[in-house]
Amino acid sequence: MMHGRGKSDSAIVAAKPANNAERSAAEPVEPRAEAKGNADQQSTRRAQSRVNVSQALERIRQVAKERKKERFTALFHHISIGLLDEAFFELKQDAAPGVDDLTWQDYEANLERNLEDLHERVQRGAYRALPSRRTYIPKPDGRQRPLAIAALEDKIVQRATVALLNAIYEEDFLGLSYGFRPGRCAHDALDALFVGINSTKVNWILDADIRSFFDEISQQWLVRFLEHRIGDRRIIRLIQKWLKVGVLENGIVAVSDRGTGQGSVISPLLANIYLHYALDLWAERWRRREATGDMIFVRYADDFIVGFQHEADARRFLDEMRKRLQEFALSLHPDKTRLIKFGRFAAANREQRGLGKPETFNFLGFTFMCGKSRQGFFLLKRKTRRDRMRAKLRMVKQEMRRRMHQPIPERALAVFRAEIARSWHRVLNRRSQKANLTRARMDKLIDDWLPKPRILHPWPDKRFAVTHPRWEKLWGGRRRLWHLHRPYEPMEVAPWSKSMISAEAWPRLIRSRLWWWSSR
Which of 34, 145, 205, 509 has its CA 20 to 30 A from that of 398? Predict the structure, then answer.
């Protein structure tokens, strides 16, 4: 008898249910940890808990939206068991463990009691963060990228804190920032850059990169930035615990007053908060007050692209940005930061000077180039970076060699079809001294296991118009400024066609395209 009356534990203390709660024989006021075998009851409570968490975060979001200078002094109690439960299931199940060697599956085995104990320690102030474990992953250029792997309970509390702070800072962050934000991705940054260069008089591109950004962040400045909106000292102390806990490498814990530990759950949000105050707000103000021509700005984490109409604006902005970043303990990478002539008139100007084709720049794994359409108009082209392509092909070849003596592929390979097919044929011919794999047999294998490439993404300007249905051009004298009135809002319509664009955005898109063709 799963729901028998005699099966209740004497240690259970009944709690007053919500007014709208539905009473049943399953006793919904029992704690989750004692409801043995009652999966439906647990899932119902989890759903109700998620509703309560989302409602609380929505109230915080509304206050942050309406009161831009409000300091939140009572946030810590929102780190509830429900929020910790959501945070746990948002973690990757196969993620590498930290110094505690505790895996996601081990923690889930007794999840309810573990979360209750963690919540009690957090609220009582007895929670202690563990040092992060240092590990390295290879970069495409052959170097090693250092990562800090936090312990599992640290990941859970960090994820819950990120959800809480996102409700505030997503209302503050500017539309020019795309990295590590909910509802935004690298494709949105690429689309914004595509639309900005095509729709404004961009003639110069500043390709900038901050040197060792995640390792050079000043923790003192970061806390001061957080205190602009966070008045709850318990949240500040919680974040300081993660910043000062240090990194374990070769048996030695290294503690520093700089950096946020790249690889931790909360690190991307702290990086965005830091750059929001140190760079984004300043760049937006400089664009409004100092620029004499068109200017665009797109940032993804510590990589950002700035476009200018006039060279003088570009050089003034670069000089002043260097001084601005130095005030906050940051500096530009000398090899990765450069100013180039780029845009619709770059090819003609360089041809007159006998300098050859316009220079290119890299952003988010793509190389951007100046090109022409079949009608002879300017066309912004992009392709995968050559070094990334070579690194990926090298990795695939190594994997094929590892599987050289396995049966014919266990799964289909859907990328780099031509190169992969050629490499595959070469590997199969080397399985023995007799190269008896005919071309007809190889073609059949390729057709069976390597699907032909298809274009799955729409044109960047079309997707940008859909994901930002209320973008407008604001005119100020001779300047043409871009302003996003609201963040990314996906539309739940399947085909990329006219039906996918809202009735509000479609006329504006038509007018923008007519203005674009008339300006050509």
Answer: 145
